[in-house]
Design a protein that fits this description.
Elements lengths: L12 H22 L16 E8 L3 E8 L1 E2 L9 H8 L5 E6 L2 E9 L2 E4 L9 E8 L3 E8 L6 E11 L2 E11 L6 E9 L4 H4 L6 E6 L7 E10 L7 E9 L1 H13 L3 H4 L1 E2 L7 E2 L2 E2 L7 E6 L3
Parallel strand pairs: 1-17, 3-15
Antiparallel strand pairs: 1-2, 2-6, 4-5, 4-7, 5-6, 7-8, 8-16, 9-10, 10-13, 11-12, 11-14, 14-18
Helix pairs in contact: 1-2
Length: about 300
Amino acid sequence: MGSGFKNIPRKRDQLAKGAALGLALALLMTVSACIPDPLDVRGVPELEQKIVVSSQLIPGQAVAVLLTKSIGALDASDDSDPQALLDQILIADASVRIDGNGQSYPLTYLGEGVYGATDVDLVIGQQYTLYVNSPGVGSVQAKTTVKPFVSFADVDAIVTFSGRDTLAQITYTIDDAVGSNWYMVNAQHVKRESIEERILNPRVTTKMLNDLSFEGGSTTDDFKILFDEVKPGDTLAVMLSNIDKDYYDFMKLREDTRFGLAAAIGEPINYPTNVEGGLGFFNLYVPDVRIITLDE
């Protein structure tokens, strides 16, 4: 893509909706897996509820923004029903838009707390602002700058099948972009029968790195991931994203503390955020996605 990705190619709205709704389904699975144990505490004042922002740029399709309400540590437990909890925290009454490069783009509500648009022209180096106004929760805004697209110089996977388990060793090479950069590498098993949802599945292996040791050069590294039974037609998606330092720090803190998304929407919260008056992060980075077939 390089400097030529001023206008991201667009597909039909139903594709954007399918992939965007996958973000909400991903939230459901993450929340159900990461809800803290209930605390037997009395007399604690109720904390102010805040808007939590998550965003995803789906290459060639759309910008999707997921809006939820923050929850207190006493509001959920492992016994909570995931769908009931999701219904409790999703925000469906907001007006949402993105302003940038002299244009304003309204986002359409797609259901399950997800708002999307297929016509946002993204220009490298330009700053874009997200505006959210929810009559029920309040208003927030967040700014982000579109980073240069960086692709893998090379990526490969050696896959070993053992019964119902599969082990993949992923080796990749990155040629560093000009200036200081922070990178995120993700790998996940994408099932054939639910590709729109699984491509945004949060149960991914994530590796964070910066270019302090290879600025202006290249680096080669590898990591291993273990996942469940593979069926014919399944794939392994490996993604490289050039992200900004604030989001890198946010992801590193989550990685180091081994908290999931439920921690990011919970109160009290100590995670960094670029959302003024809220929580979470607004990003517009373009991932390089490589697909590796896992047919046995």
